[in-house]
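REQUEST ID: PR-0412
SUBMITTED BY: lab tech R.K.
PRIORITY: routine
TASK: structure prediction, single protein chain
INPUT:
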Amino acid sequence: MNTAAGLDGDARFLDDAYLRRVLLRLYAKGGDGWRVDPEAEALIRLCVERFTPLCRKHGLDPADGGAAAFEAMRTPAAVFGDDPWAVIVHAVATTLAAWRFAQDALCSEQTARRGGLSGCCPYRYGDQADGVFDHHPAFVTSGGPGLDSARTIAGRAAALGRLFAAHGWPLDATTTAVDVVLGRLAEAGSRPAAYEQLRRERRWCAVSGLPARSWTGLLRLLLGSPADWAGVAERGRGVLLRLALGETLADLAADEVLGRRIRQACPGAGRGPAR
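STATUS: complete
OUTPUT:
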């Protein structure tokens, strides 16, 4: 019995048998089927309407539901399966969730589908009014004379930008880069982890606006290097650690060795940063 016989307009596609016949016809026509078939547009329109609530739940545009459904309906599982709507609904729900997670976690859709970042909810430095340095445990300091609070260090981002600018660095790009480093340091919880993330993920270099060579040099200047983390170098442990241990910006400005390293890593300098 054809249960679609009594249905009008787009509702006829709600019958699984009718939908399967349409999908088989579109599948047989190949790539042009969806462009020339008279029922293709109506089917997509129904999908947009049907998945609009799900799109709103994920903060996406209703057209995203139609796009996800279009991709699902072209798969053999939907065309030849026993329950095409079940396949489509599951595929659309999975796709929309992946798109939303990819936006929230600042990653690709493929990474979101793999689930390797489950529970991750990053945010850009400065997006929150209170600031990550006010509440993140990675910036809690205790004990030891002369330790600056994390809040004080965070407030020096602009001052550090001016310190670098005094040695030829572009002020705005450098201040932005310092903000990025501080934000990732808060998320990573340690200098080595933050250094590796910022060094490997080139999008942070693009955000800063600095050349790749200067970006790497800035990471070493702010966070130190692997040898410094092991306690080998006393004078090159990173500007942020030196501030946390009680040195002042005036101390850093008077440090000729540090000044030379900053100039060597400066954009446009003739040679790489001192190691």
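NOTES: The first helix runs from residue 16 to 29.
REVIEWED BY: pending
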